[in-house]
Structure formats: structure tokens, C-alpha cells
Amino acid sequence: MSDLTLNAETRTQFGKGAARKIRRDHKIPAVMYGHGADPVHITLAAHETMKALKTSNALLTIVLDGKEQLALAKDVQRDPIKPVIEHIDLVVVRKGEKVTVDIPVHIEGDAAPDTMVITDSTSLELEVEATHIPEGITISIEGLEAGTQILAGQVELPKGATLITDAETLVVNVTAQVSEEALEAELADAEAEAGIEREESDEAAASDSDA
């Protein structure tokens, strides 16, 4: 994954009022930490930063006072209503260092006819090199029959990656497709067991009156 360069400025004002002023200036308050160093408080250009963070696990090159530092966005606080980033926690990383990240799972292909595919885990936690974070993990379900299950430990991982997620975690479950009639029958049985009486539908009532 190519790293993205963001220019940063040192932040000297703190508090909610200062943060609001920073955002009014189209910047984002952030803090960089890691490797035992003191936290560094910075501001980043809002537009460029939001573009960079559209990619999950984006490796960022933060340029501060002419010096470059690799970092990953550890926590991104977003406004619940407006498309605005309120604050970012950045963790400092180094080339060759391994980091633990959640990698999205992508499903490709078509399972066998009359099956239903359920993705139980949409991401897997992996340990990977900070400078070689995969964008995703692709799992093929082409031709898989009902009853097939794919566990985390069976997924082919990118080169150099180590699985952190429990190997027994269910990722993909292929089941037989249930017909509408079968679903209706199951629902009726469940309601009967619970002592719930169904109201007769208008169509059924009309059919009975015609008879």
C-alpha cells in the first residue's frame, strides 16, 4: 500500500474552544504517539486528511517541521451528523515494524444454485508489516455447496501476514436457500407453539365466503 503524505503543524492551543476554531479553519486536531515518545499535538488539513482516510488502514507520512514520520490512524472521531472529522489519534510506526490491524473481507464468485451465502465476519485481525498492509482479503465461494463453512484458519492470508483472529471463527457460511413457503410454515409452527393465533387474511376470508 502506498503511503500518503500529509503536512502537519504543531498545535499549541487545547480545549473545546480551540478545537472548534481549528475546525473552522478547515483543519483537524490530532495527536501522534508511540515508541515511548511524548505525544505530539498537531493539526492536519481537513480536506487532504479526509481523502487519505477513505482508504482503510492508510499508511500516512506526516511531515512536521521538515521531518517525516510514518503513522497509522488508530482512532478517528467523526461528527455524528455532519461529514466532519473532529479528532484523530495517530500511532507512530517504523519500516519493518509489525502492526495489528483489521483487514476487510471481500467475497467473490457464486455459490452453487439454491444456496444462500452469509458473511459472519466482515474483517479479520492480522499482524502485518506496517509498510505492507493489505487493502483486503478475497475469499472465493465459486461453486460452494450448501453446508460449506469457511473458518478464519482456512483463509489464505497475504504473504507475511499472521492471523490474530481465532482460527475457529466462522467467516463464511453457505446454507440451503429456504423457500417462502418453508419460511411461512416455520413461522406458523413457532406461533402455534407460542400460542399465538393468526388473524385470517382478507384473501382467505374471501375464498371461504365464496366456497
TrEMBL record:
Domain Large ribosomal subunit protein bL25 beta: 98-176
Keywords, alphabetical: Ribonucleoprotein, Ribosomal protein, RNA-binding, rRNA-binding
Domain of life: Bacteria
Coiled-coil portions: none
Residue ranges of domain Large ribosomal subunit protein bL25 L25 in the record: 6-90
Oligomeric form and interacting partners: Part of the 50S ribosomal subunit; part of the 5S rRNA/L5/L18/L25 subcomplex. Contacts the 5S rRNA. Binds to the 5S rRNA independently of L5 and L18.
Protein's name according to its UniProt entry: Large ribosomal subunit protein bL25
Natural source organism: Ornithinibacter aureus
